[in-house]
Amino acid sequence: MTEMLSYDFMQRALLAAVLVGITAPAVGIYLVQRRQALMGDGMGHVAMTGVGLGFIFQTSPVWMAVLVCVLGAVTMELVRSRGNQRGDIALAMLFYGGMACGKLLVSLSAQAGAGSLESYLWGSILTVAPADLAAIAALGAVVIAVTVGLRRQLFAICQDEDFARVTGLPVRTLNLLLAVMAAVTVTVAMRVVGLLLVSALMVVPVVAAQQLTRSFAATQAASIALGVVVSLAGVTGSYHLDVPSGPAIVLLAIAVFAVFSAIAAPLARRRHRAGADPGPRECDVQLPGRASSNTSDAGTPEGRAGLAQ
How buried is residue 227: exposed, middle or buried, by Cβ count under 10 Å (0-12/13-18/19+)? Predict the structure, then answer.
């Protein structure tokens, strides 16, 4: 362990792992709540165009990916909000067009050497440069500030947009903000787990934490803790076993989910026999100036009234 920490590249790798382990589940919990678990995967496809543009213009692929991903996220949210039947087709074209365009641009760039795109597709945390770490830290700080600072408001729009609109929340603005934060998270995580696996780190720690927690706040905290643990463990394992860090992190997260699911099943049966409510309370947050409520009741008139009080 001491030997590993003596290398500058490993210190940067571990710091990047911590930042990504925090930011990915912090955004992912809202995507899971909205049943948009695969949104990160789509954003990963769009981000490839940004990486290609970074190679073409010989600038930072991370910042170019941020720009392209944010534009893609805004487009996705506008298509989603319209809710027409052709929305899925438009999103599919956006996703696959982004992937194809990224590959084409990379192949045309002067940096199209072996492994140039591979490190962004599957992650290459051991090659994180100081400039990459600075970008990850800056973007991660923004994501954490928004997802934690606006937790009540973001949860409200994820649970019931119509009721959130009635309470006076700027629903469209918050939806766009959440989409942009998801896009930023994809670019933050692409050097750690890769564009093809980033969605897993946004989702798996969240659904793993949901197996044992009974409130939104507890799930958010537990999923962030799990994200940090599996990210650090994956990076450490990739160093000692000489395997890619991205797949190692994702497989560890899935293993944790399997263990938590095995633990949760008998606990749920025990609560059921005891006459307790077997369903998890997904949220106990409250809107500013309003009484708290949980998502198990939010779909009922009584639950919505609790949010409005």
Answer: buried
